Amino acid sequence: MRQAGRYMPEYRALRERYGFLEMVKTPELAAEVTLQPLRVLDVDAAIIYADIMPPLEGMGLRLSYEQGEGPVIHNPLRALADIEALEQPDPRETVGYTLDAIRLVKRELAGRAPLIGFSGAPFTLASYAIEGGASREYRRTKRLMYSEPAAWHLLMSKLAQLVSDYALAQVAAGADAIQLFDSWAGALAPGDYAEYVLPYVQHCIAATKGRRTTNDEGRRMNNTVVSSSVLRPSSLAVEDSTPVIYFGTGLSGMLSLLRQTGADVLGVDWRIQIDDAWAQIGPGAAIQGNLDPHVLFAPWPEIERRAADILSRVAGRPGHIFNLGHGILTETPVENVARLAEFVHAYDAVTDDKTTR
Ligand code: CP3
C-alpha cells in the first residue's frame, strides 16, 4: 500500500523543503520519492507518488491539504447545478505532471520492478467532493444518493469518465498495473453499492482494460441508466489488458459483489481472515492484503506470527499479493517493514521449494 510517507526519513527530508502538492506536481521529485522505498525495502513493485485528489482540480474543484486533516475541497458539491458545472478534463492536460513522473520512473527502473499507477474510484472521489474533506458518516453523500439520484448518477458518470481517462493515460505513460482506491465504499450497504457504485467501477475497470461495457451505449446495467452523453469509450483505449487492482476497506460483507467489478485483484483489509475471503471470492481473482498496518508497531515476533498466519491460510494458492490491509502509518518503524518484506520472500522461497520437490 502506501510505500512512501512520513515513516521514511528520506521522504521527511524532502518534505521539509517542499509542500505535498508541490512535490506531486514536480515530476523529478515525485519520481525520486517513488523510488525511495525500493532502495531500502525488498518490495516487489513501486507505486507512483501522487494522490487520488489532484485530478479533481481539473473538474473545477479547489483542493488543499491541511495539517492533520488530509485533503480539503473548498467548493464542495452541494446541488445538481454544481455537478452540471463540473468540467470533463483531459487528464493529459491537467495531471500531465504525474504522467511525466511515470515516464521518469519507468526509465529509472529499466524493468527491475513493475510500476503501479492508481486513481481514486468514483465513490471515494465523490465522497470527498461532496463532503469537502474526510468524513465519518458520509451523511451528505448518502443524502444526495438517496434523494437526488439523477444528480448522483450524473456525478458518478463524470467521475467514471475522469477515472477511465486518467487510468488509460497512466497506462500509455508506462504504468504496468492500475490500482483503484475505493477506500470508503465500505460505508455503504451492499444493495446501495450494487445500485449506485458498482456499474461505475465496472465501467472504469473495463475501460482501463480497453474493453467496452454495455453502459458505453447508455443501456441499462444493474438497473442503472448510466448517462451515455457523459460516458464515452476513451480515445486512449489500448489493446493489451492491464491488470487492475480494486482496493477498499470494510468491504468484507460484499466480497461476492466485488467479483462483479471485473478486477483482476481484490484488496482485502484485516477485518476478515484471508482464507474466508478467498472462499467467498472464489477462484479467478487474486487477493491483495491483509495485514493490519498497526501490527508493524509490535515487537518482531508478533509481526512474524501474524504474517505467518496469513501466509499459512493462503497455503500457497496462486494469486496472493502480500500487503498491508490499508496504507502504512506515519511513524511505522522502517526496520520492521524491511524485515517483513524479507520474511515474506523467505517464506515464499521455502514453500516454493517444497512444491517443486
Ligand atoms: O505512498 C505513496 O507514495 C503512494 C502514493 C499515494 C498517496 N496517496 C500519497 C500521499 C497513494 C496511493 C494515495 C492514495 C490515497 N490518497 C487514498 C487511497 C488510499 C487510502 O489510504 O485509503 C486516499 C483516501 C487519499 C487521500 C489522502 N491523501 C489522505 C486521506 C491524505 C492524508 C493522509 C495523512 O495521513 O494525513 C493524503 C495525503 C498523502 N497522500 C500523503 C502521501 C504520502 C501524506 C502527505 C504528506 O503530508 O507528506
Give a short summary of the structure.
The chain is α/β, with parallel strands linked by helices.
Q: Can you describe what's shown?
A:
The protein has 357 residues and is of the alpha/beta class. 45% of the residues lie in helices and 13% in strands. The chain has 15 helices and 11 strands. It has a 7-stranded parallel sheet with strand order 1-4-5-8-9-10-11. The chain has a two-stranded antiparallel sheet with strand order 2-3. Strand 9, helix 13 and strand 10 form a beta-alpha-beta unit. The longest helix has 25 residues. About 4% of the residues have low confidence. The structure holds coproporphyrinogen III (CP3). Coproporphyrinogen III binds next to strand 3.
Biggest sheet overview: 7 strands, parallel
**Rounded radius of gyration (Å):** 20 Å
Q: What is the overall shape?
A: globular
Question: Bound small molecules, which ones?
Answer: coproporphyrinogen III
CA-to-CA gap between the ends? 33 Å
Structural class: alpha/beta
The tally of helices reads 15
Low-confidence stretches: 214-229
- Tally of extended strands? 11
Percent of residues in helices: 40-55%
Give the oligomeric state.
single chain
User: What's the rounded overall pLDDT mean?
Assistant: 90
Strand ordering within the main sheet: 1-4-5-8-9-10-11
Q: How much of the residues is beta strand, in percent?
A: 5-15%
List the helices and strands in order.
HHHEEEHHHEHHHEHHEEEHEHEHEH
